Amino acid sequence: MKKAGILNRHLAGALAELGHGDGVLVCDVGMPIPDGPRVVDLAFRAGVPSFAEVLEGLLAELVVEGATAATEVREANPEAAALLDEHFAEPAWVPHERLKELSAGARLIVRTGEARPYANVLLRCGVFF
After folding, report:
1. Three-class SS string for the chain?
2. pLDDT mean across residues, the chain
3. What backbone torsions phi and psi does residue 109 show, to the nearest 5 degrees?
4. Is 114 exposed, middle or buried (0-12, 13-18, 19+ CB in 10 A)?
5. Which of 9, 35, 107, 110 has minimal CB crowding within 10 Å?
6. What is the C-alpha separation between 91 and 54, in angstroms, rounded?
7. Which among 107, 98, 96 is positioned nearest to 28, based on CA atoms?
8. Active-site positions?
9. Backbone phi, then psi, for 17, in 5-degree steps?
């Protein structure tokens, strides 16, 4: 058994399969899940694990070259907006409906237990060299 990093075997395996340019949607429990992308559902109960915990864990494991989030997050969920601003120099901001459309092209969706609105971000994988 791993003693550090991501322990969930489904998530660890899915992350290992990602390549440059692949999309990873990190989403709250209210985000509609499109058919197609691989889904790793980490939601245990409302708020567990939080959006912040999952995002920070993923950022420790992935190289991310870009992020896209809903413009609505700024007003509806300032904590999530601050977290995104903290981690990404220039996230792309799109309407929530557009983010839902873009999520269909993600290679992986990681569902958190977050129960606050608009705690969603689409990450674009980069390379480590």
Report:
1. CCCCCCCCHHHHHHHHCCCCCCEEEEECCCCCCCCCCEEEECCCECCECCHHHHHHHHHHHCCEEEEEEECCHHHHCHHHHHHHHHHCCCCEEECHHHHHHHHCCCCEEEECCCCCCCCCEEEEECCCC
2. 95
3. -120, 125
4. buried
5. 35
6. 18
7. 96
8. 20
9. -90, -5
Six token digits for residue 10: 């489904």
Question: Beta strands 38-41 and 64-70: pairing type?
Answer: unpaired
Contacts of 4-10 spanning 24+ positions with Cβ under 8 A? 5/60, 5/61, 6/57, 6/58, 6/61, 8/40, 8/42, 10/40
pLDDT, one tens digit per residue, over 24-58 is 999 999 999 999 999 999 999 999 999 999 999 99
Q: Indicate yes or no: pTM above 0.90.
A: yes
| Tens-place pLDDT, residues 79-102 | 999 999 999 999 999 999 999 999
